[in-house]
Amino acid sequence: MNLFNVYPRFDIALVKAKGCYVFDADNEKYLDLYGGHGVISVGHNHPVHVNAISKQLNAISFYSNSVDIPIQEKYAEKLSKVSGYADYNLFLCNSGAEANENALKLASFHTKKSKVIAFKNGFHGRTSAALNVTDNAKISAPLNKKGADTLFVEMNDTKGLQKAFETEDICAAIIEGVQGVGGLDEPTPQFLNMLRNLCDEYKVVLILDEIQSGFLRTGKFFAHQASEIKADIISMAKGMGNGFPMGGILIHPKIKASYGLLGTTFGGNYLACAAGCAVLDILSEENIAENVQNLDTWIRKELKSIPQIKKVKGRGLMLGIEFDFPIKELRTKLLYDSKIFTGASMNPNLLRILPPLTVTQADLSLFIQALKQQLL
Ligand SMILES: Cc1ncc(COP(=O)(O)O)c(C=O)c1O
User: Fold this and answer.
1) Which protein residue has the closest C-alpha to ligand 1 atom 8?
2) 97 lines ligand 1 (CB under 6 A)
3) In total, how many domains does the chain have?
4) 29-73 confidence digits (pLDDT tens)
5) Which residue range(s) make up the domain with 66?
6) Rounded distance from Cα 123 to ligand 1 centre (Å)
7) Position 185 pLDDT exceeds 60
8) Is position 295 within any domain?
9) Would residue 338 count as lying in a domain?
10) Nearest protein CA to atom 7 of ligand 1, as residue
11) Of the candidates 97, 103, 119, which has an alpha carbon nearest to the alpha carbon of residue 207?
12) What is the pTM of this model?
């Protein structure tokens, strides 16, 4: 049987990993500054993470959400202490797209409206068709019945935003804390404020997609916390499980739950919660926020000494390094010659880095040296 060929891949097969490094079958060592699409938050194979999952696996690995699963409450308790959203409710699922799918559906249920405001170059996942082929009107929100109807606004375009809100039937506005795949653009605090006020005025649910930018990736627990606003729903995934598939949404208490409104077989399973608890413990115990902030300052200074760099976008350890030429060849050379994984984005001139948040200055120095060498 062949694999369904949807991914352009590097011809590298990884067999083990430790911290910020991954290894192929020949024991070739690569510095991982991409974390498999920004997933690795606390480092590959962190012993606390591995032990937590192994211990859980030996106790019980799965039962469905038809029984009490106390480790879900344990996870919610830990998240309430660090997220800045202690009074919100938590719904657990398995991936980023699923988190957003649930967030949008919930916004549509709550407002009984169906259109969505989103932003140019935004990326929120690839699902949505499943419910259209499910024969159960009770679990189909207005948004699903009509099909997605989205108004795309240019990031930080205040006039465009105002105009979009004047459209009838808007249930939600969805925005990334910092855009990932789109190329590291982000809303200004003033724009986020305006978005929050318009959502209040027009009774629209504000969804902050923190799937890539959350869990201290930018130095704040959620990227939007660099501004004063609060979201109604926050979607999470990627760094949440450090490689164990896990997603979730934080939900404002004004949005009420009812049996059957949302649901999932695997969401909130014992292993994911064990992985998630370990991630939260490591993030606090290893002073990760401080490491991210320090390295952000340090790397920006270092990158200034490279004349080919036009601009550094993003925040914390979610950075886009913009050149005045396409980075495809540079990225390939960094991987095959310098043995460093980096990422790309929709902007062909932007090299993206999303290292494990446990990366050190010494690791990043290797990257700076390699970059200088490749650009000679
Ligand atoms: C901001 C954002 N939202 C949603 C998603 C979708 O997540 P997943 O691939 O887990 O479905 C991604 C994935 O890259 C993302 O970066």
Assistant:
1) 96
2) yes
3) 1
4) 999 999 999 999 999 999 999 999 999 999 999 999 999 999 999
5) 48-285
6) 7
7) yes
8) no
9) no
10) 96
11) 103
12) 0.96
